Amino acid sequence: MLVARNLRKIFSTGPAVDDVSLEVKRGEILGLLGPNGAGKTTTIRLILHILQPDGGQVTFDGKPFSMEIRNLTGYLPEERGLYRKNKLLNTIVYFASLKGIESAEARRRAIEWLRRFNLAGYADKKVEELSKGNQQKVQFIISVLHDPELVVLDEPFAGLDPVNQILLTDELMQLKQRNKAVIFSTHMMEQAEKLCDRICLIHKGKVVLQGDLNEVKRRYGQNSIHIEFEGNGTFLSSMPMFKKTLLYENSAELLLNDGLRPPDVLRDLSQRLAINKFEVREPSLQSIFLEIVGAKVDGTSRAGPPYHKEPAP
User: To 10 degrees, what angle do helices 103-116 and 88-98 make?
Assistant: First the structure.
């Protein structure tokens, strides 16, 4: 499907994207992950030829990117690009016309999508009258109305409440089931873990981890336990037996130091907390993200194997 090789973009402040290679296939969701400022949005703009790369290339089914291919893609940008004074239905029809959809067909599709997203009553309202969450849903509709083969979404859940997050998640899974290729950019690891088949983690413009999500989690899954408890667990963060502690309300994810056995840890913790659940499990994507990005910041590796970068596809 889409293959990007050795992409590079240099601004006056230095390289924003430095030798990034990735691939997304039909019927899968690729998570383009990283902290704010990592280079995710610049990478997307290079992939879609909104920006011209200073190095590298992008191909679509083996062909160089072209205007014909651009019409086969759908893009939801991080920044809202809607005409605020225009009526909602007219706005959607206009953007569909840019993708070659005739007006009557565009209106039919737009009305259908507005109904699916509980926005039919807003069709004749100005865009500026919509909430930020509803404007985000409109941008998603615009990105998929022309039935693209490749859908690129930059922080698509921004501004959405939990109900609409579920609605959008269902639509993304529908795209996957319809054999579309999806690139999903986010710094929210919990969302990525629910949706993505493969991940590409970027930090400071470079790929630091890439691969099948399940395989990545298995690779980092040694000596990781999850507990649910009653009581005050703040002391867990200072216990020397753990390399890393992710502490939540009444639960924690713990990475054990080498040589420690989970039964020994359970016996120790049971003396200080009422343990309701204790299990050895694969680490969360959030845990892996913090491990890699944190290690890149301070130059040390606190857990797991060395950084893994797959060869260019």
Answer: 130
Count of other CB atoms within 10 angstroms of residue 293: 20
288 pLDDT exceeds 90?
Answer: no
Alpha helices in the chain (DSSP H): 40-47, 67-70, 88-98, 103-116, 132-144, 162-177, 189-195, 213-219, 262-270, 285-298
Cβ contacts of 84 within 8 Å, gap of 6 or more: 126, 127, 128
User: 142: number of CA atoms within 13 Å, CB side?
Assistant: 24
- Domain 2-86+138-213 sits in CATH 3.40.50.300: yes
Please give the structure tokens belonging to residue 211: 């691969």
Phi and psi of 302, rounded to 5°? -95, -15
In sequence order, the 6+-apart residues with CB closer than 8 A to the CB of 47 are 2, 4, 7, 58, 152, 183
> Which percentage of the chain shows pLDDT scores above 70?
93
The ranges assigned to domains in the chain are 2-86+138-213, 222-281
Residue from 99, 91, 94, 162 nearest 127 by CA = 91
pTM listed for this prediction: 0.81
Judge: domain 222-281, CATH 3.40.50: no
